[in-house]
Amino acid sequence: NTPVLNKNYSRLWFRADYPLQQATAYLLLDDICVHSGITTAISDIMPAADAPQLFQNTSNPFSDQTFISYYLPSLSQQAFIQVHDVTGKLIRSFTIAGVGKGTITLNAENMQSGIYLYSMIVNGQKIDTKRLVIAR
């Protein structure tokens, strides 16, 4: 792994090349971006420093509770995280009230084991969707 520092964002990236699979993996703290094919400059796949970001929940899978982290660069009119089951049914919704990095706690009380999707919505625009797994 070769550490790469992007001057534009002051974030430390780790890069792993997989020549047999013609793929390159980039690792940023708790976010993994995989780009297949020809290697692209890190700045091409990296989110803008002022863009909202949704991170993978920890721990995953989980049984009782998990933590979902996010980054909201500026106060928006509406910002929230929604949790849906695989059929699209809304299970929970969390309003994001502040700016900067934050974390919400999702308690699995009254939720069945299985796969769920959670999305960050800012001003009516879906920013990102990730998967979480409840295993009991």
Write the layout of secondary structure elements.
Blueprint lengths: L1 E5 L4 E8 L4 E6 L2 E6 L5 H4 L7 E2 L10 E8 L6 E7 L4 E6 L4 E8 L6 E9 L2 E10 L2
Antiparallel strand pairs: 1-2, 2-3, 3-4, 5-6, 6-9, 7-8, 7-10, 10-11
Q: What is the first-to-last residue Cα distance?
A: 35 Å
**Which class do the helix and strand fractions yield?**
mainly beta
Give the averaged pLDDT, no decimals: 78
Which sequence of strands runs across the widest sheet?
1-2-3-4
Strand content: over 45%
Radius of gyration: 17 Å
Number of strands: 11
Uncertain regions spanning at least 5 consecutive residues: 5-10, 29-46
The number of helical segments is 1
Q: Which shape, going by the Cα principal axes?
A: globular
State the helical fraction: under 10%
How is the main sheet built?
A: 4 strands, antiparallel
Secondary-structure element series: EEEEHEEEEEEE
